[in-house]
Amino acid sequence: MSNVTPQWKMRRLDSRAARIVQRRAPQSPVIAAFLATLVPKANAYSAAYDKAAKFQANWKKEMAEGRSAIAGLVKLMQAWLPLLKRDIPGFDGGIYGDKPEVPDDVMEDGERLMSVIDEFRDGQGNPLAYQKAALDALGPAVQAAIKEWAEAEAADSDYQKAFAAVRELAAPLQQDLVALRRSLLATVGRADKDYLKLRAEQAGSPDEDDDPNVPMPPKPVEAAPPGAGPKPMA
Predict the structure, then answer these.
(1) Does residue 2 sit within a domain?
(2) Sign (positive/negative) of CA torsion 115, 119, 123, 124?
(3) Exposed site from 52, 138, 157, 231, fewest CB < 10 Å?
(4) Could you tell me the residue range of the domain that residue 122 belongs to?
(5) In which region does residue 25 sit, left (phi positive, over 0), alpha (psi from -120 to 50) or beta (all else)?
(6) Angle of helix 38-87 relative to helix 103-119, nearest 10 degrees?
(7) Of 129, 151, 14, which Cα lies nearest the Cα of 70?
(8) Angle (deg, nearest 10), helices 103-119 and 131-188
């Protein structure tokens, strides 16, 4: 078994291995020895993986909402910049929203742009004719970006912690899975169905010992059409 077995495969093999051990333990003291080691490790890994998988759906949702709010703020700033460049001497619109891939910079740009609009006075001491309209539009967009990105970062932190726990449990579980396969090889032989079903390359094939809650194999990666740009992060 490879030292880089994908986590979704580990999740499918863990429950499969635990059921094999529990079923065959009465037949062999060697296999029975795994009841005290592999089974609790498999159960702990299953619980950690399933918990992380639940975080993933929320993580995708919050990240999408955060990116959408940031993109909305960039678009709104770009809409006001031509007017400001026209009406404010020396105004450099190129520094606002110039790093749309960096949310913190976008939010800071939004707040600075609002300050410029709020503080500007012409030679007669008059504010911009559209000052209130611009601030009324930009203010909620800035606040939405701050709120949504804070929630996205919180979700990302939870997601990373959840999968860190999964990774921590993976190594000791894999040691037991390797040991179990070797013990099965020595006791029942290479042609035994339980030995074969614990091979990593068999993890994606349905089996009678599978946990009904195990994740499905990921879909094959499809090639992007010619000329297509990179896909957004999931």
Answers:
(1) no
(2) positive
(3) 231
(4) 7-200
(5) alpha
(6) 30
(7) 151
(8) 170
List pLDDT tens digits, range 158-179: 999 998 999 999 999 999 999 9
What's the pLDDT score for residue 139? 98
Question: Residue 189 contacts by C-beta under 8 Å, 6 or more apart in sequence?
Answer: 195
- Which residues, at least 6 apart from 223, have a Cβ–Cβ distance to it below 8 Å? none
- Domain assignment present for residue 1? The answer is no
Burial class (CB in 10 A: 0-12, 13-18, 19+), 124: exposed
pLDDT in tens, 49-66: 998 988 888 999 999 999
Q: Tell me if 134 is assigned to some domain.
A: yes
CA atoms of 95 and 99, how far apart (whole Å): 9
In this structure, the number of other CB atoms found within 10 A of the CB of residue 206 comes to 9
pTM: 0.70
Token readout for 47 is: 């619980």
Is residue 217 very low, low, confident or very high in pLDDT (cuts 50, 70, 90)?
low
Long-range (24+ apart) CB contacts under 8 A made by 115-124 are 116/84, 116/88, 116/91, 117/80, 117/84, 120/88
Residue with tokens 């910079």: 105
Return the structure tokens found at 155: 């979700």
Count of the separate structural domains present in the chain: 1
Closest CA to 173 of 22, 42, 21, 26: 42
Contacting residues for 194 by C-beta, under 8 A, at least 6 apart: 20, 24, 184, 188
* Max intra-chain CA distance, the chain: 96
Calculate the alpha carbon distances from 46 to 15, 59, 66, 218 in Å.
7, 20, 30, 18
